[in-house]
């Protein structure tokens, strides 16, 4: 199971700051611990539905921010957005598929699937990892990624203290005598619990170099922070769905396609500075990707598997 580890995030920030390293760090092949490798496992392929499980109370406007992001990942021609776009950002994951030498693998197509609302907190307001998996299992279990999104008043094991979200896989119910593994993601709304950890750079950081928070592109610190974490975990899910795909470091705490580039959002980034981002002239919001319906988003850098460098849109 992979996760966005907040203590690791800020430890990295401090370490890099002390060593005076530049932001878009090079992952050297001579350091086996940091070498980005393919571990010969399957990647997600084919038509994949992204099903959303909204746990707790979310406003319709908040749900729209995230559903527009999912739609933007592979926006059809009639909704082509301005560049740089979310679809262009996502296309960079194709490099991982090309390196597997499986020509069929590049045919990954993501689409927005079903949405399940659990506004009455059916499992309470304090959830374990097993309960997150139980919620995720309510979605389609074949050709799908089930994303559990918890509201700002829901506590989850490890949330804030060690992670902002996680992804993994679990076996679903038997169908015709067979059990299939399904991929899942969990991300929490950190606005009232730990925005300085899980919604940076839209909130003052708790640790590391201090800088003024940026204006969130959708004017919602919690949801814009969730977009960053969902994006990172989606990249990790498709390239390392079952723990034996692409990652660096130990299997128990892997750094994946995006989590290996923590804190890097644009060129010129360094600890405490997200990089030279685009700024909306009207709202003053910082962003690096355009989405459908005029949306703007801030998306994390993704490791280029050919160069082992963090690649950004801007």
UniProtKB/TrEMBL annotation:
Subcellular location, principal: secreted
Family as reported in the entry's similarity comment: Belongs to the EXORDIUM family.
PANTHER family the record matches: PHOSPHATE-RESPONSIVE 1 FAMILY PROTEIN (PTHR31279:SF75), PROTEIN EXORDIUM-LIKE 5 (PTHR31279)
UniProt keyword terms in alphabetical order: Apoplast, Secreted, Signal
InterPro entries, sorted: EXORDIUM-like (IPR006766)
Protein name from the UniProt record: Protein PHOSPHATE-INDUCED 1
Pfam families xref list: Phi_1
Species of provenance: Pisum sativum (Garden pea)
Domain of life of the organism encoding this protein: Eukaryota
Localization, UniProt: Secreted, Extracellular space, Apoplast
Signal peptide: 1-24
One GO cellular component term noted in the UniProt record for this chain: apoplast
């Amino acid at each position: 199971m992979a996760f966005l580890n907040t203590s690791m995030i800020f430890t990295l920030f401090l370490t890099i700051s002390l060593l005076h390293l530049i932001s878009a760090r090079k992952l050297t092949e001579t350091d086996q611990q940091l070498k980005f490798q393919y571990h010969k496992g399957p990647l997600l392929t084919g038509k994949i539905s992204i099903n959303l499980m909204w746990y707790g109370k979310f406003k319709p406007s908040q749900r729209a921010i995230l559903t527009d992001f999912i739609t933007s990942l592979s926006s059809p021609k009639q909704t082509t957005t301005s560049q740089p776009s979310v679809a262009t950002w996502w296309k960079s994951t194709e490099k991982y598929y090309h390196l597997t030498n499986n020509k069929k693998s590049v045919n990954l197509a993501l689409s927005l699937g079903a949405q399940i609302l659990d506004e009455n907190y059916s499992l309470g307001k304090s959830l374990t990892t097993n309960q997150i998996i139980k919620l995720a299992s309510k979605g389609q279990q074949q050709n799908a990624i089930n994303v559990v999104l918890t509201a700002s008043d829901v506590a989850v094991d490890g949330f804030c203290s060690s992670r902002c979200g996680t992804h993994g896989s679990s076996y679903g119910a038997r169908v015709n005598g067979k059990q299939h593994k399904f991929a899942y993601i969990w991300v929490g709304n950190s606005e009232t619990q730990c925005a300085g950890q899980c919604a940076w750079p839209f909130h003052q950081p708790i640790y590391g170099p201090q800088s003024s928070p940026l204006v969130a592109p959708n004017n919602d610190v919690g949801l814009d922070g969730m977009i960053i974490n969902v994006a990172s975990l989606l990249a990790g899910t498709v390239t390392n769905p079952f723990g034996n795909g692409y990652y660096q470091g130990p299997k128990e705490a892997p750094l994946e396609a995006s989590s290996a580039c923590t804190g890097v959002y644009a060129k010129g980034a360094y600890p405490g500075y997200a990089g030279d981002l685009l700024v909306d002239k009207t709202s003053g919001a910082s962003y690096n990707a355009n989405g459908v319906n005029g949306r703007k988003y801030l998306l994390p850098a993704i490791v280029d598997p050919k160069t082992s460098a963090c690649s950004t849109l801007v």
